[in-house]
Amino acid sequence: MPTRLIFVCHGQLDHERKNGLWLASVIEKMPGFRAYFADAVHDTDGLSQHIFGNLERCDGFLAVMHKRGEVEFLGRRITRASVWVQQELAIVTFLNYQRQAERRSKVRVFAEQVLSGRG
Predict the structure, then answer these.
(1) CB within 8 Å of 68: residues ≥ 6 apart
(2) Phi and psi torsions of 42, nearest 5°
C-alpha cells in the first residue's frame, strides 16, 4: 500500500503553528500516511519547491482557517482568514480541476468559529 501524503495547511502565528504541528504529528502516527506542514518557507525557491511540489503530490489537503481580523467588503464587516491558507486552498482546487477524478486530492477545510454580536 503506498504512503499517502496529507498537506496540512495552517496559519503561522505561534498558537496556529503549534496546532498545525500537532495535526501533522497525528497524521504521521497513522499507518500509510505522511504529513507535510510548511512551517518555515520564506522565499520563492521554498515556495515553488516545497509548497507547490507538495500540493501537486498530495493525496489529501487539510486546512484550518483561523480568524485574522475584520475587513470591510461591500459595506459589510467580515472576518478574514490567513491569506496563505486561502491561496493554498485555491491552488489545490485548481489542481483538482485539472486532474482526472481518481487523482484528485480529498479536501477538508475547518474554520474557527466566528461568533456574531461580540463586542
Answers:
(1) 11, 79, 80, 81, 82, 83
(2) -130, 10
The model's pTM is 0.83
DSSP state of 105: P
Those residues whose C-beta lies under 8 Å from the C-beta of residue 23, and which sit 6 or more positions away, are 8, 10, 35, 37, 62, 64
C-alpha cell at 55: 500540493
Q: Any idea where the domains of the chain sit in the sequence?
A: 4-111
- Written out in words, the top-level CATH class of the domain with range 4-111 is alpha beta
DSSP state, 99? Answer: S
- What would the pLDDT profile of 12-49 be if each residue is shown by its tens digit? 888 888 989 999 999 999 999 999 997 766 667 767 77
